Amino acid sequence: MTRLSLYAIVGLLSGVGVVLVPDEWSEAHDLLLAVAGGVLIFLIDQMISSWRWIGLAWSAVRYRKRDIRVSASYLYRIKIDGRYLLIRGNRVPHQFQPVGGVYKRYPDSVGELAKLGVRDDASIPIDDSNRQDLRIRVSGRNLLRFMRWYARREGREVETWREFQEELLGPGLLPSGVFPHLFVKHVRQVWIGVRWSPHFQSQELLLADVVEVLWTPQQEAALRETMDSGQSELLWVTEEEIRSRGYDPKTGERTHISETAEWTL
Q: How much is the pTM?
């Protein structure tokens, strides 16, 4: 029995006791009322803090006979002097997006995920660069079990260094010698609950960990140098430009900025 179930039973019995205990037993009546009230407050707090999982459970029931596309990623919030760094997308070259990417599954997760019927997302061609990405499809009836596996952080990538190295250091957009390591802190996790994706023609759940780096003075200086370097792969933008998805009302022109960029604000 889970702790939450135990609290629920205690609260229910206390509530029944409040009704059945005679009023003249004032001390017992007050005690049961206090217990019932305390448990009720606790349960309400638990429901508020678990609203994401409650919504997820509803989606799992609602779409239990359908496939749900799940994409789990991490995104870097890189902000210097009030401007945010975006990078040109690989799969959508005309779009700029935050540095980051999809987490990887590890080989020791194959058996467990196979039991859940987890499959590669066939809407994106599989190649060496995205093989084992946590961009998958799973039936609604197994969605909660998959998410419990994901929350355990076992059998999957949890570090965020790989995409930083592949997107910025590997191509030489930043000097690798200045970035031998990063001090990364977690900012928040973004959940975009199950919704219809017109692009992928399926229900979709999007997850993203937003992270931030505690830059050394040398690293911050190297980032600042890219602001006026003219590198076509990098774009420094303001919060307003991100929120407008790159639209400039003065000129009517648009620089295509991804939806995910707004998640890092």
A: 0.79
